[in-house]
Amino acid sequence: MGGGGAQPYFDRRNSKMEWQWNEFQQIGTDYASEAEVAVYDQRMRQVRDIDGENRHIVDLLQLPENAAVLEIGTGTGAFARTVSAQCRQVIAVDISPVMLQYASNIARQEDICNIVFTQAGFLNFNGEENAFDGIVTGLALHHLPDLWKAVALRNICSWLKPGGRLVLQDVVFDWKTDTAENYFTRIVASFDSSSSHLARHIAQEYSTLPWIMTGLLERAGLIIESDQESHEFLHCYCCRKP
Ligand SMILES: C[S@@+](CC[C@H](N)C(=O)[O-])C[C@H]1O[C@@H](n2cnc3c(N)ncnc32)[C@H](O)[C@@H]1O
After folding, report:
1. I want to staple 212 with a disulfide (CB 3.0 to 4.6 A). Which of 50, 67, 75, 208 is the partner?
2. Nearest alpha-carbon partner for 214 in 199, 206, 226
């Protein structure tokens, strides 16, 4: 896998190849109904300042007028709704039909008409090259193993216009000089209201290490402009396509 350039790694017409990662298999928590999504939404709002995070992400994107934005892993659609006021069009994709239904219902209730909700993921979204001024993905990339994160980020770079920005927010673990065991025990204990969710995330999902994430972003052809860390494991990377 070489760096540089912005071509996608593979031709999506070959997407039925047996070596290909199936991103529609659910890794981590699955939501079977909109009622379960509503509970998830409420829990997230207790542990995160979602509106504040979304306003910050919009600032980082530095969008031009009439911007086109892609959000991958939109979940309940909160970011897509926030950014829609500054956009000509937002494409909001997710692999979960239940999430998409929940998100599109809220957008309809709020009379927001410029968001297109589509079932797709990092690996199978049929994006055009150089199409988006901004791409955002929050707490979704960790659903892919690192090999497939590399493919996803290369795709994202190809879909961005030159000068366009990716804001990637995700869980990235770093035990620094401590042991992994001490670190995980400490962060799970400090996260009391959601500790079992965090423990399951560590055990079952594909969050990676900071030096791997920065390598993946750079090798995809992106320039990392900033990397902000909170809660010891939540990173927000702002990257620009040269
Ligand atoms: C933890 S939620 C985060 C939702 C929202 N972005 C946020 O920050 O609150 C992760 C979302 O990513 C979606 N997802 C998982 N794997 C995906 C993939 N390969 N491509 C796109 N979305 C994916 C899930 O269905 C879920 O809606």
Report:
1. 208
2. 226
Strand partners, 160: 132
234-240 vs 160-171, strand pairing mode: antiparallel
Mean pLDDT of 37-66: 91
- Model-wide pTM > 0.85: yes
- Token reading at 60: 């980082």
Out of 3.40.50.300, 3.40.640.10, 3.40.630.30, 3.40.50.150, the CATH code matching 31-170+206-240 is 3.40.50.150
Distance CA 41, CA 75 (A): 9
Q: Ligand 1: distance of its center to the CA of 129 in Å?
A: 22
Q: How many CB atoms lie within 10 A of CB 238?
A: 22
Q: For 12-15, which contacts have Cβ atoms below 8 Å and span 24 or more sequence positions?
A: 12/124, 12/126, 15/123, 15/124
Closest ligand 1 atom, CA of 169?
A: 8
Give dist(CA 159, CA 227) in Å, integer: 22
Residue 12 has pLDDT above 60, yes or no: no
Q: Where are the domains of the chain?
A: 31-170+206-240
CA 23 to ligand 1: nearest atom: 19
State whether the beta carbon of 170 lies less than 6 angstroms from ligand 1: no
Cα dihedral sign, 83-88-93-99:
positive
- Going along the chain, which residue ranges are E strands? 67-72, 87-94, 115-119, 132-138, 160-171, 223-230, 234-240
